[in-house]
Sequence to fold (76 residues):
Amino acid sequence: MSTGEEKDLAPFAALWDAPASPPRWVIWHPDADTMVFDTESNVPVDVDDASLDEVLSRMREAGVPESVDYPGRACG
Fold:
């Protein structure tokens, strides 16, 4: 990966740190979509489409959990 691509991914680096217990970030598969979910803030993480595949790949390599079930807590 080139230096420019690494720079573009730098804001997302914490997403593929070794997961804590319970993990803060998870890979969530609602319907036919795939997104990163922040369980602490209880919202999806805004990862741009150009970076999403690489971010997900690095998260999977780090062992971040994946689920089709809603990973957050109830709202309200």
About this structure: The first strand starts at residue 25 and ends at 28. The two ends are 42 Å apart (CA to CA).
